[in-house]
Amino acid sequence: MWLSKKKPPPIRSLVGEGMVVTGHLAFTEGLRVDGEVMGDVMASGEGRSILVISDNARVHGKVSASHVIINGEVHGPIHCTELLELQPKARVTGDIRYETLEMHPGSCVEGELKPLKMAEKPALKLAASNDV
């Protein structure tokens, strides 16, 4: 898990500012998006991955990685298997599935937030119950 002292994977790929990519992007290890992507951005493989969507970036499609940091715009669903960080300028329109969520003041989500593992609901017992 990211909260441990393990070193995050390196960011080896970049979609630069002013660049527009149309189509599906698959990456391993790390990707930083400073431009615009019109398509899905998905980590490939089973290993750990990191995706950074900077404050001027826009993604119109599905997003999936182990660790996702968003400070720009995402229009589409997000699936994050470890840690999702929504920075102050994050704007997300779409449903989000996450393991751990860190949401900063100022970030905005239009969609449903659902943890990947739902905690089992405890049995309800009323304080005024006659069952002893």
| Fraction of residues in H or I helices | under 10%
Structural class by secondary-structure content: mainly beta
* Count of beta strands: 15
Ends distance? 42 Å
Q: Give the overall average pLDDT.
A: 89
Low-confidence stretches: none
Task: Provide the gyration radius in Å.
Answer: 18 Å
Could you give the order of the helices and strands? EEEEEEEEEEEEEEE
What is the count of distinct domains?
1
How does the major sheet shape up? 9 strands, parallel
Number of helical elements: 0
Strand content: over 45%
* Shape verdict: globular
Write the layout of secondary structure elements.
Elements: E1 11-15, E2 20-22, E3 25-27, E4 30-33, E5 36-38, E6 41-43, E7 50-53, E8 58-60, E9 63-70, E10 73-75, E11 78-86, E12 91-93, E13 96-103, E14 108-110, E15 113-115
Parallel strand pairs: 1-4, 2-5, 3-6, 4-7, 5-8, 6-9, 7-9, 8-10, 9-11, 10-12, 11-13, 12-14, 13-15
Describe this protein's structure.
- With about 130 residues, the chain is an all-beta fold.
- The chain is built from no helices and 15 strands.
- The chain is globular and about 35 Å long.
- The N and C termini lie far apart (about 40 Å).
Please give a handful of descriptors for the protein shown.
132 residues; 15 strands; mainly beta; 9-stranded parallel β-sheet
In short, what is this structure?
The chain is mainly β. The protein has strands spanning 11-15, 20-22, 25-27, 30-33, 36-38, 41-43, 50-53, 58-60, 63-70, 73-75, 78-86, 91-93, 96-103, 108-110, 113-115.
